[in-house]
Design a protein that fits this description.
By secondary structure, this protein is α/β, with parallel strands linked by helices. The protein has 14 helices and 14 strands. Bound molecules: pyridoxal-5'-phosphate.
Length: about 375
Amino acid sequence: MRIAEFALERFFARWEFAVRHLLCASDVEGYPMADLLALADPESRQLWDALRLGYTESTGHPLLREEIASLYDRIGADDVLVFAGAEEAIFCLSNVLLGPGDHAVVTWPGYQSLYDVGRAAGADVTLHELREEDGWDLDPERLIASIRPDTRLVVVNGPHNPTGMLPTHEQWTRLTGELAERGIHLLSDEVYRFLEFDPNDRLTAGADALERGISLGVMSKSFAMAGLRIGWLATRDRELLARCAAFKDYTTICSSAPAEILALIGLRARDTVLARSRTIIDANLGLLDEFFARRSDRFRWVRPRGGSIGFPRLLDDESIDVVAARLVEAEGVLLLPGSQFGHRGNNFRIGFGREDLPEALARLDAFL
Ligand SMILES: Cc1ncc(COP(=O)(O)O)c(C=O)c1O
């Protein structure tokens, strides 16, 4: 397999642990391990205390799968397959569903593996471009028009990385209805689900919306536990799930035993865990709104509808790549230029899930 270098991950490999302030992180501030264990109910505490570090069930711990299934309306434990993060799930699913002669449509700019793994598997991929002048809105009619007789998969990520786009209920119903009618699989990347700013905007999960809908979830973002490396696919298409499970035999075989139990604890205590994430995000979003209102001569800010990231544009003539390089040098604050997504505008990703955002933003302000 020949696969394009993952630009964003290479960028983070260079910078993530070398800068003082990651003002472009996509996850929420990591949950403290001690606080998580304090949330364990008696059963999961017992599982943790008695844990043996052998191999685990390849499909995922049955209790974990059951807990994941409870996030959906029409999904049972056997409709869930656990992976090492969302990334492994994307890799397996794209390889299983796509090959030479197949076509996929994927929202863009976006998380690179959502389109480049399919390409590396030999598929032809059409990027459904989200445009700032449309408020980064998904355009179901334009997307549907790009579907071809050989289209096997449509990939939509919402809340979206990097724009914070979230389809409206009307747009989602239109798209999922059309895909159901045509029998096309939908990969709904829902890794920022539960971080909708207005809970009424939360969409029907992809796995619930259509039989060939596949929901992608992970502990990393809304649940603030990226270090667990626990993600999952949920779908009523059991045959597809079985093929993904067989592919996983060549990647990780099974998940980390401690991580599965910690994920179980986190999901069972999800009201507490998610409330913490939303509190961090709400406070940070308020600061960003104030900052971008005051600095409207320098930035254009399309306010996200959910998630922990947005994609503002620097209005200066100078390139954001140059400005970001100077900023990190001067203040140790990292922004992610849109060029890392292959985007040509002067946009950059800003993350607002971290607790040091007030200081990072103050440093950016001073730098400006
Ligand atoms: C939209 C999207 N999907 C998938 C992933 C992969 O998640 P993980 O790193 O937890 O595997 C990310 C990570 O940034 C993401 O933003």
